[in-house]
Amino acid sequence: MTQLSPLYEGKAKIIYATADPEILLAEFKDEATAFNAQKRGAIQNKGVMNCAIASHLFRYLAAQGIPNHFIAQVAPNQMHIRRVEIIPLEVVVRNRAAGSLCRQTGLPLGLELNPPLVEFYLKNDALGDPLLTGDRLRLLQIATDEEVAQITQMALAVNTHLSRFFAECGITLVDFKLEFGRSQRGEILLADEISPDSCRLWNQEETDPEKRILDKDRFRQDLGAIEEAYALVMQRVLAHSIP
Ligand SMILES: Nc1ncnc2c1ncn2[C@@H]1O[C@H](COP(=O)(O)OP(=O)(O)O)[C@@H](O)[C@H]1O
Ligand SMILES: [Mg+2]
């Protein structure tokens, strides 16, 4: 399918139009950013690894009945996706305390959260992606109450499936960020990406709190061996079969 000019270049992907107005091409980049793009760098081969990981996970979630934007992987670092109107929310699901939750609440790193926590952040880099309250979410009219309820339910279902999937890979799914959008048909679809850029993943074979980290925290915290961590996630994810 012919690829037209870039529609949008984000921090991790370039989105192109295609000849079909309902289909976009997402090209995954090696560039990495953290702390709202204040820290910048590149992770060698990240585009290819994240595209492979996300493609496999979207296929898996579709097989589990989670509607998502994935159509097909068309190149090592490119996938065709269904065009949606992105709802400007970062939906975070947490199974264990980490990152900003620890910083803002004092909860100890790794504390198990049962039931898992679902949080909504405003997807707005200029405002620093602030945490929203339910009232602020309603005030901003970003999504209807019905949509928020549906997104929450979908995020928890994604968590159930992905937690089990990663556990079967010997990896703990600590937390992750999702984006959702509205399709042309008005359906809510899971969109964007699921990768070590957007998840916290801990290797269950390591007890050392730094060595076990298999995600973008290695880049955020300058822990080294970033490519090796992403490659290990890719290898284990791709080896997990899809029913
Ligand atoms: N199916 C889709 N349709 C339209 N836009 C999408 C879709 N999936 C993801 N996007 C958007 O593509 C953009 C590029 O992704 P990314 O580089 O990760 O951006 P960001 O810098 O906002 O994180 C983001 O704005 C994301 O919300
Ligand atoms: Mg992004």
Annotate the secondary structure layout:
Blueprint: E1 3-9, E2 13-18, E3 23-28, E4 31-34, E5 39-42, H1 46-63, E6 70-75, E7 78-82, E8 85-86, E9 89-96, H2 99-105, E10 112-122, H3 134-140, H4 145-168, E11 171-182, E12 188-191, E13 199-203, H5 217-220, H6 226-239
Antiparallel strand pairs: 1-2, 2-3, 3-7, 4-5, 6-7, 8-11, 9-10, 9-11, 11-12, 11-13
Helix pairs in contact: 1-6
Bound molecules: adenosine-5'-diphosphate (ADP) and magnesium ion (MG).
The site of magnesium ion (MG) has 3 residues, from loops.
Describe, in plain words, how this protein is organized in 3D.
- Helices cover 30% and strands 33% of the residues.
- It is of the alpha+beta class.
- It folds into two domains: 80 residues, Phosphorylase Kinase, domain 1, CATH 3.30.200.20; 142 residues, ATP-grasp fold, B domain (D-amino Acid Aminotransferase, Chain A, domain 1, 2-Layer Sandwich), CATH 3.30.470.20.
- The strands form three sheets. Strands 8, 9, 10, 11, 12 and 13 form a six-stranded antiparallel β-sheet that branches.
- The radius of gyration is 17 Å and the shape is globular.
- The two termini are 29 Å apart.
- The structure holds adenosine-5'-diphosphate (ADP) and magnesium ion.
- Magnesium ion (MG) binds next to loops.
Strand content: 25-35%
What is the name of the CATH architecture of the largest domain?
2-Layer Sandwich
When the domains are counted, the total is 2
Bound molecules: adenosine-5'-diphosphate, magnesium ion
Radius of gyration: 17 Å
Fraction of residues in H or I helices:
25-40%
CATH topology category name of the largest domain: D-amino Acid Aminotransferase, Chain A, domain 1
Largest sheet: 6 strands, antiparallel
Record field, number of beta strands: 13
CATH class (first level) name of the largest domain: Alpha Beta
Please report the distance between the alpha carbons of the first and last residues.
Answer: 29 Å
Shape: globular
Mean pLDDT: 97
- Show unreliable segments: none
In N-to-C order, the SSE pattern is EEEEEHEEEEHEHHEEEHH
Structural class comes to: alpha+beta
CATH H-level homologous superfamily name of the largest domain: ATP-grasp fold, B domain
